[in-house]
Prior knowledge:
The chain is an alpha/beta fold and 513 residues long.
Amino acid sequence: MKHLDRLGTGIGWRPEIAAAVERLPGLDWVEVVAENVCPGHLPESLGRLRERGVTVVPHGVSLGLGGAERPDPRRLADLAERAEALGAPLVTEHIAFVRAGGALTASPALEAGHLLPVPRTRDALDVLCENVRIAQDSLPVPLALENIAALISWPGEEMTEGRFLAELVERTGVRLLIDVANLHTNRVNRGEDPLRALDELPVEAIAYVHVAGGMERDGVWHDTHAHPVPRPVLDILAELCSRTDPPGVLLERDDDFPPAEELAAELDAIRAVLAASPLRTPGRRAPGASAGRPDLIRGTAGANAPNEAHEAHEASEAHEQKDPNTPGAANGADEPDPADRAGAADQAGTADARDEGSAAHQPACPAAATAPGRAPAVTAREGLGLAQAALLSALVAGTPAPEGFDARRLRVQTRALAAKRADVVARVAPELPRILGTGYRTAYLDYAMSRPMRDGYRRDALDFAEYLLIAGRPEDPVARRRLSHWWQDRAAPRPPRRATRFVRAARAALVRR
């Protein structure tokens, strides 16, 4: 595997903290959300950083390489264009799927607006490897893929996360972006052992590492990227550094931005972990479990997570119903917006339940399983597509939970997806919260719970406004007139006629079946 140049210590560049990032001492590099920059009109702040010799790496969030469809050539070309415009030494993406349905499954195309997990099965790995090779052939620089934190556990998984990543690297030569905060999230919420994952990883493939903060509520860890990095995440970073000297480490912060001094202090804490690595200071004892602090990493979660997490899950569900404004968890805040995740756990999320050879295995792609006497099974790509479409439809269109999934956990994830959509739509169309006032969030969540996103967040904002106008809302005539004018300026001369409304209602009913 070709050696990558060292990146050093960096931070996620966001417009809200652009000035603060430029003032940070000793900054080696930054990462930008690829979909949020335009190659022909790069932010001036990024230009100034590049002039100083600060490396800029584009971090993509929309390829969906873990999906059943082959990567979209247009999205690949866009990512390649950004890599060239930024002079980046590599580009990064996620091991996740973000859309499903469409021609492959002869079902409505659905968008998650979120990073969702790929089943750790041989068939899913085959599809992922082919998609990765397609992406690698289309990009001008090396590709690295990030592990995600996931709320949902697929039934019948055949590999641990570490083994899945190791085989992916072995078969494609792809680099890895290891998010230690996601490993911590999965430890708390699903009982997965981060040390086992680190032991199984091909550490020589690591391109760089993500570090981020979060917070615990009702026994569930929320990977918000809006809180300081906690000690357990730094301890996992230390464990990783006892196995390899990562080429780069990056601090992610996506919301509730602190003063520049606090960001600098967090970067210093990361540098201290790197400096204390036994690989940089020979003779020192390895940190974490080998240093007599197993409670900070392995903890008691691995043993007790099933029962504790099940109780936490129910508490979290009740909390989410009371406070829809609370950020979600389970996945890193890497989407093309600083939005947050929702986390929970139950027995299905434990590492032991996913070990190879488990007697509790179920078909990993329930929609693709073939019963005795029926026609031969569909291809791996088709089977994965059917399974992902069934899952995503349950999450965003209100269809029943696929066999083998925890329906309670899916409900929590559904609310998290709707809450994230509300947050992002408020950012891309800030006029809507101003027009609707305090009623915006309630109205949007009611809309989103049964109406999938069709074509990105800007389209979703228009669809939401149309939904309200068709229903004669808002009740205040002044607000309704303002909303109508906003919609007309962006969509059409007037709201749709009765026939169009009927067609769209019929289409929505089909999606919900």
